[in-house]
Each structure stands twice: as C-alpha cells, then as structure tokens.
Write a structure and sequence with these properties.
Helicase, Ruva Protein, domain 3, 11 strands, five-stranded parallel β-sheet
C-alpha cells in the first residue's frame, strides 16, 4: 500500500520519485517536512497530493510579512448571543498544514508554530488546545537570498525531520507536464490510497523495525562527529538523532524490510541533518556538501 501511495503521487509530481519517497518516509516517521526551492517547481502540488492521497484534512496558509500568530492559531471573539468569548480555531487545526513560503513571515509568526510542531498542541488565551492526530507541517520556503525572506531560527529548523529540494524537471518529465492535463484538475480527482486506520497502522509498524546495536554504534559515531568541533560550530541535538533513527526505520518499512541497515542512515543523512548543522566557516562548501564530507569520513563499524 505504501508503494501504491508513492505511485499515485508520482502521477502528479512527475519525475521526482526520490523526493516523493523521502516525503512519505518523513510522514511515516511522524515528522514535519521542509521543502526548499525556487517558486514554481511543484512544492505546493506535492504537499496537496500527499494530503489528498492520505485522506487527511488539509489547510493552507500563505505566509506573508503581515501574517499574525492569531491568523494561524485562531482567536477568541466575544459573541453577544452567548455573552462570552468563543474561540475560533485557525488553520493550524488540520491534520496537514501547508505553511507556504514560511520564511516570508516575520519571526513572531514563525515562532507560533514551535509548540504545535513539537507538542501537537497550541496555547491561546491561557488554554492549551490539542491538535488533530495525526498532525503534520509541510512547509515550503524560498531561497534565503531572495528578497523579503526571513531565515528560520535553529530551534524551528531542528523540528523539521527532513528538508528536500525538488529542482527543475528533466526534459522528458517537463514535456509530459506540458502535454498533460492541468495539475490542479488532477489533484481534485485524487482519491485516498490509505484509510486513516491503515495509515496509523503503518506508522505503528515503524516502531517494530529492528535496530541492531552495531547500527546504533554507527548512528552515535555520526552524531558525535558533528559535535567534536572539527566539522560543525553546532552539532546535532538528541532530538535530531532520535528523528534520524525513526526516519531510517520508516525507510526500511517502505522498502519492505524488517531491519535498519547502514544504507538507510546514509541515504537519509544529508536531507535529515544538513539544515540543522551550523558548519565551520573554515570548511569549504555549503551545509549539504559538508554533511556529505562528514558522512564519508565516519567509517561503518
């Protein structure tokens, strides 16, 4: 069923099967997904296709410079009929929240998502309100060098399990896009591949994937290398290590295996950690290149 899910989304987002598999792995691991790329390459389409294929409630928020936290979380409004304040929930109260161009909003609004992403709840007017289950944030952001963007703080980046980039389609995929039906019309016709119960069962099955002590040794060696001061000014947090392990389990499940292999960690490493690392200025290359170099430098036990 999980491969059928990937197949269906691949009919909408053409030529990006690897990124689609990473997205499904992220959601299987109960993680949040950050999609970073230039406008117009299908980031929003991917998010909508995921939500529709899973049969989950979906809401989309366009992040702008004037977006307020109350626009996202909700607000209490005085109603004369009840002679009291009534809470009107915001778009965050959905199972899949698409935070479109998240880095175009100011830091205050970005921070409004921190509690929701970590605790699956929001605090408004002194009351804590739980969010629907499951709850995923699929955020898109434009390159930080573009005008009108605000870099996400490290505390928020650490809450995203994976960061992916779609990139331009290859020539064959682009020709298929040009000749095919409009993507919006195809999205409307998508049916859920899994029921909510099947999806929850798949998420539960992630916990049953076996992890050997040798694999844990390898994971700890990778994490320790980010903290020894030779590669990064700021290494991976324990939350990042736990997230990477759960992602590796989800990848094994997607591929039909009952155990995690070193290849699972290696395949996920760059997308899972590059956005979290604070590299040393003396090291050449960007975050992704430095993450690959670090991976190559740590031997498999």
């Amino acid at each position: 069923m999980l491969q059928k899910l990937v197949d269906q989304i691949s009919t909408i987002v053409i030529g990006k099967r690897e990124q689609i598999e990473l997205s499904v792995i992220c959601l299987l691991a109960d993680g949040h997904l950050l999609i970073e790329d230039i406008p117009g390459v299908g980031k929003t389409t991917l998010a909508q296709a995921l939500a529709r294929s899973l049969g989950l409630s979906f809401s989309r928020v366009q992040f702008t410079a004037d977006l307020l936290p109350s626009d996202l979380l909700g607000v209490s409004v005085y109603e004369r009929a009840t002679e009291g304040f009534v809470f009107h929930p915001g778009p965050v109260f959905a199972q899949v929240l698409l935070a479109d161009e998240i880095n175009r909003a100011g830091p205050r609004t970005q921070s409004a998502l921190l509690e929701a992403m970590e605790e699956r709840q929001v605090s408004v007017d002194g009351l804590t309100r739980p969010l629907p289950s499951p709850f995923f944030v699929l955020a898109t952001q434009n390159p930080t060098e573009q005008l009108g963007t605000h870099p996400l703080p490290e505390s928020q980046l650490d809450r995203f399990a994976l960061c992916i980039s779609l990139g331009y389609p290859d020539a064959q995929s682009e020709r298929q896009l040009l000749r095919g039906e409009d993507r919006r019309a195809q999205l409307q016709a998508l049916a859920a591949v899994l029921s909510p119960a099947q999806w929850q069962a798949s998420q539960q099955a992630v916990h049953d994937i076996h992890v050997s002590d040798a694999l844990l040794d390898y994971l700890q060696a990778l994490v320790a290398a980010t903290r020894n001061g030779q590669w990064c000014a700021q290494g991976l947090s324990p939350r990042a290590a736990l997230s990477l392990l759960k992602l590796a389990r989800a990848r094994a499940l997607l591929q039909g295996r009952h155990h995690v292999s070193p290849e699972d960690l290696q395949a996920l490493w760059v997308n899972a950690v590059a956005h979290r690392l604070v590299p040393l200025p003396s090291r050449p290359g960007n975050q992704a290149e430095q993450a690959r170099a670090l991976l190559a430098a740590v031997p498999v036990p």
